[in-house]
What does this fold into?
Amino acid sequence: MLHRLLSFMALLSLVWAVDVSGRIRWNDACPNFEALGPTRVTLDRQYSANIIRNGTFTIYDVPEGVYIFSVLSHDFVFDEMRVDVLADSLVEVRPYALATRLNPPAPRLLSYPMMLFPRSRNAYFVQPESFDITSMLKSPMILMMLVTGGLVLGMPYLMKNMDPEQLEEFKEQQARMAKMQSAMTSGDFKSGLSALMTGGEEPEAGPSKAIASPPTKAKGKPKKK
Amino acid sequence: MRLLNAALLALCGLVSALTEADVGVVDWHKQFVGVPLSASPATAPVFHRVGQKATRSVILTATEANVLAGLNPVNGSIDWRHVFEEDDPILAFTKHGDVAVSLSGPGGATLRVFDVLNGDLFIEKRLHRPDAGQPVKVTAPIIITEDFEFITLTNGHTVTYVTRDAESKWTWTAEDQGSLVMYTQLVSTPAAFYVVALAKSYASYTLHVTALDRDTGAVLASSDFASNIYDEPGVDPVALVNKGTARIAWYESNGIKSFALSPKLDDKPTILKDVNYKQVMDVGLAASGYLVALKTDSTARVFRLEENGTFGRVWEFDGSASNSRNSPSKYAGGFDKAGQPYITRLYFSLAFKFASAEIYSPYLSNGKGLVTGYSFPFETQNHGIIDQIAIDAANPSEMRVIGRIFLTTSTGALQLWQHDKLQWTREESLSTIALAEFVELPEKVVSLSHHADETYVDRVLRHISDAQNLPRFLAYFARRFATGSYASASSAVLQDGSLWRDTFGFKQIILAATRHGKLFALDSSSGDIIWSKMLDLGWAAEIGGAHAPFKLFVTQTVNEGNPPEAVLVTHRTSSNGITDTVVFNFNTLNGQDMGNQATRAAPMLKGIDIEDKALGAFLEDRTRAVLTLDKNLKIHRFPQAEATDKLLKNASHTLHFPVQTGNTLAGYRITEQLEAERIWAFTLTEYEQILEFIPATRGPVASYGKVLGDRTTLYKYLNPRLFVLLTQAATGTCGISLIDAVKGAEVYRATVPANAGACDIKATFAENWLVYHHYDEEFTTGQTKGYRLVSVEFYEGQGVDDKTSSSDMSAFDKDLTNLHYYEQTYVFPHGVTAMATTTTKFGITSKDLIVALETDKIQAIPRRLLNPRRPNRKLTTEEQEEGLIPYDALLGIDPRRTLSHQQRVAQVALLKASPTLLESTSLVFAAGLDLFVTRVAPSRTFDVLNENFNKVQLVGIVAALGLAIVITRPIVRNKKLRERWYA
It folds into this structure.
């Protein structure tokens, strides 16, 4: 499988060198040469070759050593490989993942001549965010809005069906919460907390009114429907 | 690992990628091929026509950028290009039928065969090892046979026959491989191949020819021809071929010597000496049997080799003798659709300022020959002089010839003239940008609509006439109010040709100084050329020379004064070897010369000459004066005004700058006498050399510290005088240092191993952040070999909450070197050709790293991934709160952050970022073989409405709510009333 150097090259060469060759396997990700575009393959960026139209490449005159093989493709993702060029002009190819230890070598040998598989095509773009009613309904803000809206509308009916004692308790609780909230927003944490703790002994007219008014307002709406 | 990385990125929500609709709106991309190598006929541009009936033509050329390209003659677009590696320079190319063939590398080590119309690579074959390559000079080293097999002449003495399956059929190597015999060209006839050599003999050359068998490569005959060829231009012998006959002709002792080529090489040379000649030249028609010979007065004569072997003169160009009114003539040959040859003479009339062409068609007019002449308005003050021409002709009717002339000019412009009409121009010098600066445009000023002294009646009348527009204005206002779209960070800039800045300052001028003596102003929003100016060569114009851009400064911006100005400092090297310095001062908006009153209207920029090569040039911030330092440490100032001198004297104690001289880096200050005084020197050992010094990227600093998760603060080390020094040592290591320019103190130093004896380090430094990229080949003790990206952040003192106020500390403060740093190394999958950080208006937005990758991409790397404090373990809550991400050795390339997306931006050597008016957004300019500009928002566009903000929807909802209130209010009121009555 190895292409030995031509005789006159051997005369000139001082170091034993081997030609490393391989081919690309076209697949769905990258069906042909047009899709691939001009692409170089390299061993440690020192020895390199272009992939030609029939999908093959030959890296000429590679001396003995351990190399990391990479495909410098613009649009496609390929795996790196570890290539060992051995003294007896043998070439061993092994899988290799970047940023892992190069030694010891992986036990599994890959075929030689090398076979390259385009893994995937680089996705440079994201989908533009467009107006979509379903995605809008899924957003938490909208969901919260809908729930509160539903509660506001449904509350009068709930209140109606409650017995008066419970209603009283509930109103008290609401007033307490409202007070705490207003205290919190005005920055008065202490009184807010104490309001929460004490259980709101002194219900003020303001908050309860504020809570009470929306139901009365909304009351009429369902009736009209 | 990679998956993890990607998942991490996605989780962090770091991605703010382009959508497909943004392409060409937020960015632009211009591809170039480079300036043609027009000096050698083996690489110069040439027309080629493919096809029998419906023909398609292409202009092929090899360029200085080491690109082999095919240009479309119709519109000047690039049909294809192949970018060769740096260590694989193109030696020659030729074409035939559907293929173009190139030889590249030392001695022509590699043969490549391309599809001539689309550039697909068919064959890539190594002919000899590149390290065994010898420097060669060739004129025609490739032959393509009729059945598309290739004969190559490599290394000056080896001929190889390569079949269409890329196998070597035979190889012939000259016995005498010494440097004395150098084979330069191949000739093909049906009988044999001939290899022509110039053998160096005492004081001159002897012609040596070897005939080879076409099938086996066996030597049929080898012969020396007693000749005295001297080493001067135009000595290369021309091998004429016409069907079966071939003849080699050369200039010797005022005559034209020639002999017929036959497999036995038994012809005796004959000499033609009817008049005195001085040169023979191949105009690209040698394979059709034509050559042009110049008489001693430069009158051109056309010679033809007939099919029967006779060789003689067929034409003389009238009036082609050299004279002072015209430039020297250029000659080129070409063909028409039918394959008939044409020879063109082209000259520029210095008196009338236009170019004239004469096309000689030997076959027309019943074989008597026809000459067509015309003139066209070539703009020599914009494009310099015509370096080389190539032609292609059409013969629509018997007595009519239309020529297409392709020009390469000294400023790197390519033009195609069809008859006297300019079809297109390509400014290929834009592929040689050495320096670039962004310049802001002025804000549009609304002009006054009336005079200040108008009378009452006038005003009333004006108001009435203005009121006519009111209904239209109201309608427009309502429409805009309801639906108006707002400019967003990804909206297009209006291209109306005006020079006003747009809403967000995306439209700026990019000043670009090229290596071909031309200065360009590009529109950063479209890439269009706003203006361009040639740099006058001054006294060197007579003998020839070139400007090498050295420094470019924007001395006055639109906010500081009117008009905005810039200064370009160049090193001018004339052809006699003298290098001096020239300073050009110009208006950045229109290119007008601001140097002196007399030259303002001149089409070229005229500089101010300074003797000697400037060692350094600087812009003094307060006076906005440019200072240059010559080798005698004399300071030259621009503008030369007394006011400037006074200001400089006052500011002298603060003026410090580092200058590199040989192996010494020295810091200078300016004395009150305005002379330079050395205050420190940093001499490297003889085993170490300075590669580069990189100034820090300046910009406003928004925060002086970093608050950590535990509420402690790390104060940034913000010494404004730091610069990066890259060095290479003979021991095989490379040094990266940070040096204080005033004191010469080294505040940081790192050493990394060299890669195969070379240091290819890219670094950038901004604020307190240094990033560098290198190759580490050591893997036996380390873990793996490959590229590394190192991120270093410098902080004041020795730990948290240790503040030394480094930003306004004196260089002589004891705390100058009281700092600590965090450092982290990542494995980076790719080589990097240029590096920069983004800059924004106020420096609040985080800085992304922008790198140009070897795979022709511009990539953004988020700052968060390069935080050197990324913990190498599980995150604590404090670290989570701070927004740190766990360390991962591999820094993957996220394609959604590839700024150049599917476009190729090749050989990028210069990356520059510029702030816009939007704090979130930075402009990035990449220049190399190609130009690319895009907008980057490292922290997303937080200061402007999102592109998908839907105003119609918002207005609709508000309107609907308003309507609902209007409808329900009476209902509620009625209901309340009813409740009062009936409750």
